[in-house]
Amino acid sequence: MTATVNVYLDKQEYGKDKVRLLKVHKDTNVHRVDDLTIRCLLSGSSFTTSYTEASNKAVVATDSIKNTCYILAKSSKVVDTLELFAAELANHFLNTYGWVEGAHVTIIRHRWARMIIDGKEHNHSFWRDGDETRQTEIFIKRGPNCKGRRTIDLKSSIAGLLVLKTTGSSFEDFVRDEYTTLPETKDRILSTCVDSTWEFNIPAVDSANLLSTLGQIPFNNIYDSVRDVTCDIFAKDESASVQATLYKMAAKSINNWKWLERVSYALPNRHFFAVDLKYFRGTKNLQEHADVYQPLADPSGLITATVARSLGARL
Ligand SMILES: O=c1[nH]c(=O)c2[nH]c(=O)[nH]c2[nH]1
């Protein structure tokens, strides 16, 4: 006999994941594209019985959730601003189904860069210039006492921005003990695959004003700027460590944009070791002689941090 255990449903969210959608903006003959992967998850106490009592009475089919992504993409004016399209989708579910308490939408945007043909940007042909993606995640909740009130958790990110610099990076003065084999270096290759997330500070708002309030935030400029800051500091910093370079990147973006509350980075330190070639005719390839390296697939370092705006920094 199995012992009976008292349990309860602690958390739940359901919806459609990996909804693939390409929106082509044909307002002029210079077409633009948004290639998206969308996840929409709904939550609320009304869904409890779908788990505990096999009742689907409150369940909006995930198939309908998928259809909604396409229908809203057809009419929306803001698909090209991920944060606004995610907000439009999430708020749609809250407005349409009075029993939905939370709508959680994540959108990933895949890169398509305009082709250069005969020296000119082509009107309607694109190529995939890397696996890096732009992402946003919004969680909109209905106000507990006021059904038209919305609280908004919103963060956006860059994922998979692969970068490498061939000098301008050192790593010295770290702990040396009986576990240490790594030599100190004044000059090494620095390479990472940037994941960066920036969290917005958004006050609660009425549903009717949600899109116009969010519309005041220059989301696309913030994304471009965080990416530029990341690349600029990566290239120019005389890096003492991944940790120190990361902190400069995050601090700069918080200082640049008043809407940002916290900026996080996860930076794998992809190691490149100079190959010791002295066995071959005494060939010098270490320290200042290094120009042939072996990229190490695994392991990598992993340096992560979140930098937050100081309390009072808004005053
Ligand atoms: O920038 C670095 N930070 C570290 O913490 C570390 N540890 C290590 O072995 N190499 C590096 N590089």
From TrEMBL:
InterPro entries: Uricase (IPR002042), Uricase_CS (IPR019842). Its EC number is 1.7.3.3. GO terms for cellular component: peroxisome. 5-hydroxyisourate binds at T62, D63, F171, R188, V242, Q243, N269. Pathway: Purine metabolism; urate degradation; (S)-allantoin from urate: step 1/3. It catalyses: urate + O2 + H2O = 5-hydroxyisourate + H2O2. The active site is at K16, T62, H271. Keywords: Oxidoreductase, Peroxisome, Purine metabolism. The lineage of its organism: Eukaryota, Fungi, Fungi incertae sedis, Mucoromycota, Mortierellomycotina. One of its GO terms (biological process) is urate catabolic process. Catalyzes the oxidation of uric acid to 5-hydroxyisourate, which is further processed to form (S)-allantoin. O2 binds at T62, N269. PROSITE patterns: URICASE. Urate binds at T62, D63, F171, R188, V242, Q243, N269. Belongs to the uricase family. One of its GO terms (molecular function) is urate oxidase activity. Pfam families: Uricase. It is found in: Peroxisome. This is Uricase.
